[in-house]
Structure formats: C-alpha cells, structure tokens
Amino acid sequence: MESFTEFLAAQRLRAGPLAPHLDALAAVLTQRGYAAKTAKEQVRLVAHLGRWLGHRQLRAADLDESGIADFLRCRRRSGRAGRSNRATLRAAVEVLRSAGVVRPAAPAAGVDEICRIERAFDEYLVRERGLAPASRANYLPAVRRLLSRRFGNGSVRLDQLRPEDVRLCVVRAARVVSPGRMKLIVTALRTFLRWLRMRGDTVTDLAGCVPSVPDWRLTTLPKSIAPEQVDRLLRHCDRRTVVGKRDYAILLLLARLGLRAGEVVAMELDDLDWDAGEVVIRGKGGRHARLPLPRDTGAAIASYLRDGRPRCSTRRLFVRARAPLRGFANSIAICTIVERALTRAGLDPPRKGAHLLRHTLACTMLRRGASLAEIGDVLRHRSPDTTAIYAKVDVAALRMLAPVWPRSAGDA
Questions:
Q1: Is 352 considered catalytic here?
Q2: CATH 1.10.443.10 is held by the domain 227-397
Q3: Which of 16, 288, 326, 366 is most exposed, with the fewest beta carbons within 10 Å of its own?
C-alpha cells in the first residue's frame, strides 16, 4: 500500500508552482489532526490547483479568490467537482494563505469599512468598558448586521444611519431570536450607537430609537429536570468512545458544578489543580473562582485526558473530535452536546441548552434545604437578585405565604 510519503512525492512532481509548498501543507494538516485519507484529499486537490495554475502560466502569488472560483468552475465542467471540493479547498488555501503563499482575500470596500469600524468598537469595549471576550462576541455580530443591512458592500456613511434603519434591524432579529437573546442585541446596539454619537459620527443620538424588549425579570419559572433524569442523561453517554468520554466529563461539570457553557469552553489544562482537588473557573466579567472538583467529575476528566483527548497544541481542556483539533469556538457547541445527550436519553424538556443543567442543580439544592444565599455562592451570582428567581420554585415556602382561600358557610 502506498505510504503518505510516497503519495506526497508523486503529487509534488505534478503540482506546478504549488509543488514547493505541499510538504508544508501536509505537515500542518497532520499537526491539526486530519486523518490520512482527508489529508490526501486536500493535498491532491491543491496539487491539481497547482497544475491548473501551471497550464495558465500563473505563479502561486497570482492566486486570488477569483482564480479559485475559476478553478472550481473548470472542475465542475469536467465532472470532477465533488460536493465538498469548495470546503476542502478553502481549508487548504487558508493554510497556504497563512504561510504567505496565497494572497489575502480582498474584501469589498464596504465590508472592509465595516471590519474597521468593528475593530475600533471592539477596542472601545475592551479599553473603556472592560468587557470580556464572551460579551464582546455578543456585541459585534449585532453591529455587523446593522451596518451590512444598511450599507451592503457600498461605502459606509455613518451619518446616514436613520432611526428607521435601527428599528428594522431590531424587528427582523426579533422574528428569529428569543426574548433573552434580543435583550443582548438591544444592549449591543444602544452601546454602539452611543459610541458613534460620542465620536461625532452621528448627529442624532440614535440609541433612543432602539425598541425595548418585553422580557420582564421573574415572569417565568426556571426550566429544570428531575435528578433521576440527570442520572439517566449521564448513563446514556457511551464512555467506550473518545467523544463519549469527553461529553460525559462536560455533562458532569454542568450538572455537578452548574457551570455556564462559556465557562466549559474556556477551561484550560492549567485550570485543574489535582493536588488540591480544585478547578479554576473563568467566569463572566473576567472573574476567576476556585471550586472543589467532585470525585466523579474529576475521575471523568482524568479518563478523558488519559484515554480520549487527542494530542494537539491547544491548552484548552476540551477539544473538537474532528480536525482541525482545537478548542470549541463558542458555547453553542456545549449546548449542542447537551441537546444530543437529551435526545439519546429520550428526554424532551422545554429548554435543551446547557443552562438547563445549571437550573436543575439550583432547583435540586433548594428542594434539599439549601438557602438562596448558598445557591448564589455555588452558581457564583454577583447579586442576590439573580438568585431570586429560584424562590419561585420553593413551593413549600411559598405555601406558607399564600393567604387562606375564603370559604362560605355552606362549604364547611
């Protein structure tokens, strides 16, 4: 059977101007954890791209987005373009681009201006507001949507923003986003528009034009599941597999410590203090906290590190199962893990995100006699008002506060 080295040598002979770069491409693909079959597919596609460049007497430095599009069209016409060719080539070209072989993509003028505005706003959020990366990740997409819908790929004239533009942006988002998420978007837009007014980019203070979101605090009950359902959820993780070991450890962190999804994403290898039996939690607002690591949770993490976590350069504790091997991009991945675990266990609660297990821990503690102050300490709430929502599920305490229903003489 042909080895990868022999395969690479054969492709190098036919790769035209990209031939000198195939070894570097193969090394990066291997380092990122791609399987040999996938790495061969990407190398073969790049070698074909190199031959295509050579036939047209082009250099590697001449390759740009339009050239890549032309190459894919030629493959489609010859019947050789598979469904995944575009994604495969995009990943390979990004490796070559990071090495300076392929020219950076040239964004449209309007897109470039929007990126510049985003960067300046992001610097303001860090320097003046002290926002954590997770919070800024909620702000910037809202800004991008507003500017992209108003100006498209054309020139960005911030002084031409109108109240109607802001209102339409909020209304469109509200059709597909939950009220809780909309509150984040509204806050982001108001902050951005006040920043524009402060800089003198707009004459009118458009922040007042952002509609409010009708999502009052304490109007809903926290969604949770029963403790026996948590046990059922954990039992349905197949810990014989790498993914099962990882997901089991993640679910235990959510269920036993009540972590937020973003806190699981941010965990690093250095956050585990095995001697003290503690773990450092990178919480909201850049705050760090040390929590005791339960025995079963620590055992699950150790099992994942010993027999499941792939070798890679990232210091993140939990790593993607598929290449490129790196930490999760955001909290959506953790919510997806919870949702899939619920499906495997045959559970169908009204909410299926990672916060379900955080609420479940709080409700279970309350039913077992813990005070709201103790729950707030475990969940690391900054204000007691945040913990107050769990008072609504303390039925025994609420029953004592309820007035006796009046009865008539005939009811006695």
A1: no
A2: yes
A3: 288
